[in-house]
Write the structure tokens for this entry.
Amino acid sequence: CGRIKSKALDLAKKIKKVGQDDPRRITHSLKVGLAITLVSLFYYVRPLYYGFGSSSMWAVFTVVVVFEFSVGATLSKSMNRVLATLLAGALGVGAQHLANLFGDRGEPYILGILVFLLAAASTYTRFVPHIKARYDYGVLIFILTFSLVSVSGYRVEKILELAHQRLSTIMLGGAMCMLISIFVCPVWAGEDLHNLVVNNIENLASFLEGFGGEYFKVSEDGGDGVMVPKEDKSFLQSYKSVLNTKTTEESLANFAWWEPGHGSFQFRHPWTQYLKIGVLTRKCAFHIETLCVYINSEIQTPTEFQRRIQVPCMKMSSESGKALKELASTMKTMTHSSSFNVHIENSKKAVDDLKTALETTSSGDEAYLLEIIPAVTAASILTDIIKCVEKVAE
Amino acid sequence: CGRIKSKALDLAKKIKKVGQDDPRRITHSLKVGLAITLVSLFYYVRPLYYGFGSSSMWAVFTVVVVFEFSVGATLSKSMNRVLATLLAGALGVGAQHLANLFGDRGEPYILGILVFLLAAASTYTRFVPHIKARYDYGVLIFILTFSLVSVSGYRVEKILELAHQRLSTIMLGGAMCMLISIFVCPVWAGEDLHNLVVNNIENLASFLEGFGGEYFKVSEDGGDGVMVPKEDKSFLQSYKSVLNTKTTEESLANFAWWEPGHGSFQFRHPWTQYLKIGVLTRKCAFHIETLCVYINSEIQTPTEFQRRIQVPCMKMSSESGKALKELASTMKTMTHSSSFNVHIENSKKAVDDLKTALETTSSGDEAYLLEIIPAVTAASILTDIIKCVEKVAE
């Protein structure tokens, strides 16, 4: 009994955490409930029911399947659904007429062959990357509606009336979803994408800002060998979340493509730019991943040498971090700022300083370079990457 | 006219390529067509039609929505669908009875509130990661069926009979999908996962085997400064595909969980092990990504120094490559092999050789170490990672 209780508590905590992580999830659930309840009014209110008949089922259906978390996803699904239903309905009726020409005996065969061909061909197109990204759901609904219409037409005589009823209920359900998702606490995929990219850059920035101090085991203020307190080491892990965001970014960009203008984003905002920035950010994160191995390296660097490279290295890391932070904040406010260039220049100067420091190093330290150099090179690669990001940021 | 023609040709080429990349896609399309045609037989054959009535629509419906590329995905979706329909149907009938107690006036309100609550709660649970990964589709169908049953019950008196008809057609559609996907040219998600992981390791291996030669600009056989021919440089890019496979691996592992035993895999094969190997492989790829920057470095390394480190570096890279290749082939055949350890030992020895070489380096070269060391360190990290992989491979 105690074990069941603790398990239930565990589950409850998990469920609560889902809501705390993103309170919009709770709003979303309520919105879905609202939409479904509204749509099922068509069943309860008699005059509406007699207008649509049992086809009102399709409205409920559409709402359940089409309502997604972000506006873009909902729009994409409802548009796909409505358009695909229209197209497939028309084709289905056409197939029906064609099959009729072959008489009662031939009809089922012709219809069977047509359904087979269209289903196979459409399923095949779902593998084409471009179609998969944007119209996957539409193709699915196309297959569905086409086979339903052409097949059920064989039985139901009043096919046109039925098609009309179904289409109007689906459109009604779709419109309901679109309206609720746009006007009741909207969740914009574009905004999410923007925040995700900015957040990723900020994560990298805070890693870089902290890295210098962590690597040389000094506190930010003193600089005389005092260990950094253990509490604030979360920044060392923050870059990890950047490594695997590719899929999320791509689907968000796809959804954002469907969204109308909102907030500071216009319709047809250059969403693909975000993907490019994302690729560069991830590249940066890969380098950081490599860099990270050296933080807890066991081999001790000779103090004399360490002192020599410490200043430029710390400057490189903190300045590039500041530059990235600056970049993130300019992206947030969508303004241009000159201090980004200042930080970049500073970090470049630090790279040069480091080179001079290395050139004047006395011999005998070479073996120890093993630990120092990677940090340096990665930091210089970082500066290169920051330059790229700068270009993309427009 | 010419432009339209060339565009059409382009499209045709793309579509052809989709099939060439993976011929199983063509088979899959044909399988879907077959399943839908078989299921629509219920409409054409009169005795069957009168048995099921217009509910046979649900069979078509189920097949279209549930049939997926791999066996695991199909199984997961059909099981989810059938179970969710059962549960939601039962709950829906219950809700119906409950609402009946409140008389004709109260009924719609009670039903509306119930639908709202259940829809909102179920939508919320879809955000819980574990449920999302494995039962997302089931919850969707649950909401759908529950609202359909409880709402339409208000109108249709013979609700139990209808529910029975629908459930049996859905089960029929689901069974059809499962049978066809398992017995007609099955595509196993588990096998795909296995191949993907093995392939990723092989990609890294071929990169490492080629890297030494590429970096020192020597051909494999001569070793006297001859440029490697340009043709076979694809191996330098091969590791790129490894970087972003996380999502694919995770969804494949999820699907594989549903699959019965097949080939050399048993039911409940330790699929999560593959995910762990995947994480390590990607870590390896991240390091390689960093390493890659130095291949086309502009700064010229002094020949004298280069000659000294060339032998151990090339050995490190080729031996670790060979070790990974060995690992991939042991995974393929699922046997144990001792030559893996031999290669690991060799590459470790090479690391030691390199260290000695560096220690005896004369001074004045330090500035140039900038290019050499990262390769070395990354290779030594690689050896560490390979050790991890070895552990996981059991």
Q: What stands out?
A: Chain B is about 80% helix and 0% strand. Chain B touches chain A through 78 residues (CB under 8 Å).
